[in-house]
Each structure stands twice: as C-alpha cells, then as structure tokens.
C-alpha cells in the first residue's frame, strides 16, 4: 500500500476510538460530529480489513487486530506530537497553569509543602491540583492529562520516564503513655499492636489479609526475613491517620522517617528507631514521554528535585 494515499488523520481517529471505545465520546473529544466519527470508523475498517471495534453486551470491544495496532499507532502519534510541539521559552513568573500531581499522602505531606513555597516565590500563577492514586489511571498519565506521579512503584510502564526523588528509611511512633517505650526491643515490638499503612499503588485496591505476607510490604517483609511477624490491629491507606492512631497507648506505627519526624514536636508521641533492620525505599517521580521535552515540564521536574534536595539537607 502506498502510504501517501492514506489519510493519516485516520490514525488519530483510531487512537481515540481505542481509548474511548465509544463513537460518541470519541467524536466529542476530537471536536467532530458523530456521523463524521462513524464514517472515520468505516474507513478504518476498510483500511485494515478488520472490524476493529465490535458491539457487544459490554459496549464496543476491540478486536485482536485492534489491540495489536493500538501501541503501534500510539508510538507513531507520540513521535509526531513531539516533532511538532513548539519549543518555546518558559517563563515561570508569568505562567498561568494547573500542575496536576498524583501523590501518596506520604509524598504530599513531606515534599509538597516545600514545592508549594517555591512555586509561590517563583511561579505564583501555577496552581497545584493534588490527586490520590485511586483518582488516576496509567492511561491518564500516558496521555499527559496528569503531569507527574510521586510515589513508590513496584512496576511502571517502560515508556514512562522516572527519577529517584530521595531515599528514606523507617521510624516508629509510640504514645508517651505506651509502656513499650521503656524497653523498646524486638520482643517488646512484637508484643505490641500495630498500625499497618498501605504502600499505595495505582487504582483502587482490595482489602488486606494479615496472613498475606507477600502483600504486606517492607516492614513485614523485613520481619519475615528474621522469622518474625507483628500483630496488626488496623489497616489504613493514609500515613497521617497512622500517625494519629499512634497516639493511642497500645498502638505502634512504623512509618517512613520523613513522615514520622513531622511529629517531632508532638508532645503526645515519641519517635523511636525500629528494633530491627528495615531496608530503605525510594520515592520516585514518573511522567509521560509526551512531556519529556516540554520546557514547562522540564522546569517543574528540576524544581521538584531541588526541593527534595533541600528537604534532605
């Protein structure tokens, strides 16, 4: 087939159709009429000699051929978008933008206050929109609808760009009324009741099981290596809630050090080192390849790393 005879706009139609799997929504997203979108789908079916999307009881379902085409078409369009994106100088002092960041409450509590201070000084027209992991799909990030992820990731699409923001270890929070403070060794630690905090990933999660050691995370994996297990009294997905629960006289919260130290001036709790070794973890920053060469985004990434280095001093 002679590619010069192919309407390359059809690739844009196919990319959106496979994302939305709905003709009406695809037409609205592209700013065209529904009949024009339907005509585009007919032309795509003729071009690839495949129905591409089939109406089923669950809606429009992509065929096997469509699923094969989807990453190829996305790569082609990504290259075109990067080629034609204007490389204008970015002036933070005059910028008027919304910066959308998905972050765990750990990153939001420890890094974002410093970032907000710097933005107020250098780019007062940038507004932060903080999203939780359950608010965001990887597709939103891939398409550049979300500027950045700040979290700890077990897995990430290979196309995404990543940088380590910082390393952190763990500390324990105990109420000043907790008798375990008097002799906080491993035996005492294991006798206590504990607050578990999720290592938050993307999307909604299912409930936890205290016996499912593979999903319990860093603290419990470290205990497992020495043949021990702690008694978990409560599961929470919020580090700040864990810090509040640690004020109860019979609970211990083992938290990232940067977060635990935010409670250093809290007279109701004491920050203590854990009585066993827990490996460090990384807070990472990840973003779409679509934004890699964007001058605004390059400035934001540099600012985040500068703030992280300041917080590490």
Can you walk through the features of this model?
By secondary structure, the protein is an alpha/beta fold. It folds into three domains: 82 residues, Winged helix-like DNA-binding domain superfamily/Winged helix DNA-binding domain (Arc Repressor Mutant, subunit A), CATH 1.10.10.10; 99 residues, Periplasmic binding protein-like II (D-Maltodextrin-Binding Protein, domain 2, 3-Layer(aba) Sandwich); 110 residues, D-Maltodextrin-Binding Protein, domain 2, CATH 3.40.190.10. The protein has twelve helices and twelve strands. The chain has a five-stranded mixed sheet. Strands 9-8-10-7-11 form a five-stranded mixed sheet. Strands 1-2 form a two-stranded antiparallel ribbon. Strand 8, helix 9 and strand 9 form a beta-alpha-beta unit. The chain is elongated and about 80 Å long. About 2% of the residues have low confidence.
Quick take:
It is built from 12 helices and 12 strands. The protein is 39% helix and 21% strand. α1 crosses α2 (23-30) and α2 packs across α3 (34-48).
| Tally of individual domains | 3
Low-confidence residue ranges: 201-206
**What's the helix-strand series?**
HHHEEHEHHEHEEEHEHEHEHEEH
For the record, what CATH class of the largest domain applies?
Alpha Beta
Percent helix: 25-40%
Shape: elongated
The total strand number stands at 12
CATH homology superfamily name of the largest domain: Periplasmic binding protein-like II
